[in-house]
Amino acid sequence: MSVVLDGLRRWPDVEAPGLVAVDAADRLILDESAALRADADAGSIVVIGDAYGALTLGAAYAGAFGIRVHVDALNGERALAANAERAGLEETYRPFALDPDLVRGARVVLLRLPRSLDALRDIAGLVAAHADPGVVVVAGGRLKHMSLSMNDVLREFFGRLDVTRARQKSRVLVAREPHDGRDPEPAAAHIDGLEVRAFGGAFAGARLDIGTRLLLESLPSELTGGTADDPFIDLACGTGIVGAWLATRHPDAHVYACDQSAIAVTSAHATMLANGIGNRVDVVRDDGLSARHSASASLIALNPPFHSGAAVTDVLAPRLFVDAARVLRPGGQLWCVWNSALKYRPLLERAVGPTQQVARNAKFTVTVSTRRRG
PANTHER family from the entry (predicted)? Predict the structure, then answer.
């Protein structure tokens, strides 16, 4: 197994010192589940939250086949595929959405614990509702990201919960006897005239975070673009608040919203439908703007992420700035909100063009960058 795990990469996700493709929690989950997996039939093992393929490929290398896998981040899903191809294990698993088909009849579920309790509640409820009654969930994570509240969430849906000894600052929770299962339902909120929907784990949940609020307050009433061929773009859209705001404030506008998180895209779809604007807003799961043509947009709005999995990093935003610059038409604008401590303005100047500060509060800065001509 170490042969496979030691060769894992994060690519095409960011690769940098301190950012790893496999950690002690992955290895502990595999060790604690080894006997269960050895007795499991083909197609009865499910993996959820596998960052870059450690759980899936570790299980596959040990002989598992027909593994059903859900990875929320598109880059993680692509990294799993690349790692599987290098290891010759690409036929051992299939990707699924976070829906009943993922877990239907499952006997063993390997789960990297999400940091969001709401996300854990959605996953646990789904497993309890559709997995085999004898299912065993082996859920693990790093101690610094775990809390006793996770135990409480699992006990909402499982009659027995065992806690393993910690190893290398990691721990595993083993859940059995499912009950009271349910399919995920989005949280709902009415915010400043918008209906917002958020499944567990979506950034900010069903609320308007202070950075995005400052961005919306700063956008001018008159904007260039918004046609079918030149839509307003909500990059890294999360629950779709910015895209929905643009579509409702500009009743004839077309909007393109994208995010690499499956949870975010599902939430944004629900937000658009709740506001009756689904026919004018395309919501797409994408790594940045890879699906968009160059020089095809006049306006992009962005609240850049700063997490890669559980790791905090400042290398994600620069990649999005470069992608936005490629997609903007000459003279087009990138409206961006960012934590003032990150000092992104020089990066925006280099990647996009002349950048002006539009607004600033105690924590966040809003800038507008104009794409250079020529």
Answer: RIBOSOMAL RNA LARGE SUBUNIT METHYLTRANSFERASE G, RIBOSOMAL RNA SMALL SUBUNIT METHYLTRANSFERASE C
Instruction: State what percent of residues in the chain have pLDDT above 90.
Output: 93
Is the pLDDT at 310 greater than 70, yes or no? no
Residue 189: φ, ψ to 5°: -150, 150
Q: Indicate which CATH number applies to the domain containing 281.
A: 3.40.50.150
Does residue 374 carry a pLDDT above 90?
A: no
E-strand ranges in the chain read 45-48, 67-70, 93-95, 108-112, 136-142, 158-163, 170-178, 187-191, 194-198, 232-235, 255-259, 281-285, 297-302, 307-308, 311-312, 328-339, 355-360, 364-370
Domain range enclosing 203 = 187-370
Task: State the Rg of the chain over Cα.
Answer: 21
Decide: helix, strand or coil at residue 119: helix
Distance in angstroms (rounded) separating the CA atoms of residues 259 and 241? 12
**CA–CA gap between residue 212 and residue 108 (Å, rounded):** 40
- 308 to each of 261, 313, 314, 324, 367, how far by Cα in Å? 11, 7, 9, 19, 23
**pLDDT surpassing 90 at residue 332:** yes
Tell me if residue 110 falls in helix, strand or coil: strand
Which one-letter amino acid corresponds to residue 341? A
Domain boundary among 178, 199, 231: 178
Q: Write down the mean pLDDT value for the chain.
A: 95
16, HSE (Cβ side, Cα atoms, 13 Å)? 9
| Nearest partner of 264 among 215, 299, 214, 303, judged by Cα | 303
Query: How big, in percent rounded to 5, are the helix, strand and coil portions of the chain?
Result: 35, 25, 40
Record the pTM: 0.94
**DSSP secondary structure letters along 281-325:** EEEEE-STTTTSPTT-EEEEEE----EETTEE-SSHHHHHHHHHH
pLDDT score of 312: 46
